[in-house]
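One-letter codes give the sequence; the fold follows as tokens. Both lines appear below.
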Amino acid sequence: METKHCAVDGWVDAIPVPGPRGIVSFDLVVRPVDIDALDDDAPDTIVTCTSGDPRITHELLNGIQPGDLLRATGTLVQPPAPGEPARLAVDALEVLDTALIPVLRDMVLDRYGDYVVIFDADTDAVPVFTAHGAWVGLADNPDAVARLIDIHERVTGSDV
């Protein structure tokens, strides 16, 4: 299996997902430099990224949102089979640009790893549940969701 140390610039496709042993994974949508030379329907490249560095995982889980433009530097491992995504083991992360803050309309259900939250445009409070439907608590505002999840995991001794 061939590896290469490189930097990849791309947009975060979805909320980064925590995994076992402190590993976080996320996908970057990478567009070629010569995008104007490609057909309009040419697919974007998706690079699956992982990191176990505590500073990077904290930033990914607490400060990154879909649409952010990142530069991920690390070791790129070619896929074992054609058609599978390349994997980048990230050892450095830089935020190049942030996505616009979404304006919530009505009610939105969102997922934070193993947790589900409900955003309501009429209130700042955010109900938080586990993905299995167990009540976690009520965050005072959207910025407090990560803190509530962290407290829940510390109290219960697990990540759901």
Summary: Residues 145-156 form the longest helix (12 residues).
